[in-house]
Design goal:
By secondary structure, this protein is an alpha/beta fold. Helix content is 37%, strand content 10%. Helix 2 runs antiparallel to helix 7 (182-203). The protein has a domain at 44-191: 3-Layer(aba) Sandwich (Rossmann fold). The protein is globular, with a radius of gyration of 20 Å. The chain starts with 10 loop residues before the first helix and ends in a 9-residue tail after the last helix. Helix 3 (82-90) links the parallel strand 1 (77-79) and strand 2.
């Protein structure tokens, strides 16, 4: 039986872009505690995110390629993707949610929102019964039929999908427009980007350990260069050994993992116990030498409003000597 290295990852969720990972919805704003020179500390990810957010003003379509609903504010919203649910709560629109997916469990107040089941291939009848005026879906091919059917029934939809930090900024602004509060959306976005910039500034002068992030054992999948988690590792002062692969979670061979010989292996707490108990992995020096570290999947598992906090937590793992300087 294959085992997962990261809580919430399944073989299917890897292919769908880590949909089911969990993580709270709290933006981490450390601007009052750290000063970043204006010409420094702004990461490439943060700069790209700001540019994406600005260009999103002209966006006509969602990530399905369907027209985004404009000209109205929605009061009965179903959100079927954890990151978007968390963003909506951060925007102060949580009281307008009339449905969520079973994976949307943060913040705690989200648990009071009716659970409508899976966010992938959702039960359209259950969605309609909640009488929404907007349904926000994860924009995967599995969800396109549901979006199309809802639209034929006169219910507005918006589909979002992003594996990058820049996508978080764009989606936050789009949700702000749908919720009728772009000022608060900008505040949430900027808070997160500011924290990312601070962390990158603090780690920029440190040596960069090479990092492996396995997420599935058999077959073996790892975090690749097209994932926001690759960006977080870079911001936190590491170098993903598979960062050159242009996929969020590419499949690799164990022999290649051994050859790349990462300095540090980052996995979930459960994944760490399973990995160090697997005799086959002891051929890797990082395993033998105790350099298998557990990261908090509740914080780092999705490109949402805790991205800043995720970068801080990874930086503490990769650079414990910088802990006192980190926000």
């Amino acid at each position: 039986m294959p085992f997962v290295f990261s809580a919430g990852f399944t073989h299917r969720s890897l292919l769908l872009g880590c949909f089911a990972l969990v993580g709270p919805a709290v933006a981490c704003d450390a601007s009052s505690r750290n000063s970043v020179p204006p010409s420094q500390g702004v990461s490439a990810a943060a700069s790209a995110a700001a540019s994406a957010a600005a260009s999103a003003d002209a966006s006509a379509n969602d990530d399905f390629g369907m027209p985004l609903p404009r000209g109205r504010t929605f009061s009965r919203i179903i959100a079927l993707e954890p990151a978007t649910t968390e963003i909506l709560f951060a925007l102060g629109a949580g009281d307008r949610l009339v449905g969520r997916s079973r994976f949307d469990t943060y913040p705690d107040s989200a648990l009071a929102v009716p659970d409508l089941g899976d966010g992938i291939r959702p039960n359209v009848e259950a969605l309609v019964a909640a009488r929404p005026d907007l349904v926000v879906l994860y924009a995967s091919s599995d969800n396109r039929p549901a979006a199309e059917r809802l639209r034929t029934l006169g219910i507005a939809t918006a589909g979002f999908r992003s594996d990058r930090i820049e996508g978080f900024a764009r989606i936050t602004m789009e949700l702000g427009r749908l919720a009728g509060d772009t000022v608060r959306a900008m505040a949430v976005r900027d808070s997160v980007l500011r924290t990312l910039a601070i962390v990158q500034h603090i780690t920029s002068e440190s040596a960069r350990p090479s990092v492996l992030m396995p997420v599935w054992h058999n077959p073996l999948y790892v975090i690749g260069g097209a994932s926001f988690m690759n960006e977080l590792v870079t911001i936190a002062g590491g170098r993903n050994v598979y960062g050159s692969l242009d996929a969020p979670s590419p499949q690799v061979t164990f022999e290649d993992v051994v050859r790349r010989n990462a300095d540090i292996i980052l996995v979930s707490p459960v994944g760490r116990e399973r990995l160090i108990a697997n005799a086959g992995w002891r051929v890797i020096p990082a395993v033998r030498d105790g350099r298998v570290l557990a990261y908090d999947t509740l914080v780092t598992g999705r490109p949402g409003v805790r991205l800043g906090e995720a970068a801080v937590s990874l930086a503490r793992l990769l650079h414990p000597e910088l802990s006192a300087a980190l926000p």
